[in-house]
Amino acid sequence: MRSHWLCEFLVDTLADRMPFRVESLIRNIVITVDTEHIHDSAGFDFTPEGESEKPEAWAVRDLKQLLAFENAEWIGVDIRGGGALDGSDLQTQLKTKEISGIVKRLIIRFPRQRFGIKKIQRKPGSSHTTFHDLKPYWTPPTAQTKQNLQHCRASFEELMQIQIAEWTRETSGRITAEDLNWKSLL
Q1: Under a CB-based contact definition with an 8 Å cutoff, are residues 116 and 71 in contact?
Q2: CA nearest 80: which of 4, 23, 14, 12?
Q3: pLDDT given for residue 9 in this prediction
Q4: Helix (H, G, I), strand (E, B) or coil at 105
Q5: Strand 115-122 relative to strand 28-34: parallel, antiparallel, unpaired?
Q6: Which of 20, 49, 61, 114 could form a disulfide with 110 if both were Cys (CB 3.0 to 4.6 A apart)?
Q7: Percent of the chain having pLDDT more than 70?
Q8: DSSP type of residue 164
Q9: Helix or strand run (H / E) with residue 144
Q10: What is the pTM of this model?
Q11: Are strands 74-80 and 11-13 parallel, antiparallel or unpaired?
């Protein structure tokens, strides 16, 4: 199911026309996020009056709804688009950066094998879909991974681990000793 349809899917109208939330009934679900999301707010330069920051991208808003799936046995997120299957193309990099924080929260909320994320593609004129598992990119980088980057020996997966750690690094509203000692590896 495409991410922008999730909101409508989650509220069912019963025979008595009363809305009923279905999150607790879902056991398995796959949500597709397009790299070129035509329904995305990230392309708009709109900030609601009284707010200092732009609203979050709609893909992030949509994926946040998955946090309520308390009985889910498995949740998948498919990033669909062209470019490199490993996600090294610019469009997939931008989409990965955009959703990296909520994906990290979903991995924590649905540990072990209950959550997956992959890049999917269907070649023109083919009914065959290919995919690449992206979940290892959310594995925190090891000291060896950081050293590999500094010595120009990092694999693409190691680079992604470092990028996602940087993109999802949380800071408090005030500067701490940890913030002063954080050295960006990018």
Answers
A1: no
A2: 4
A3: 78
A4: helix
A5: unpaired
A6: 114
A7: 79
A8: H
A9: helix 143-150
A10: 0.81
A11: unpaired
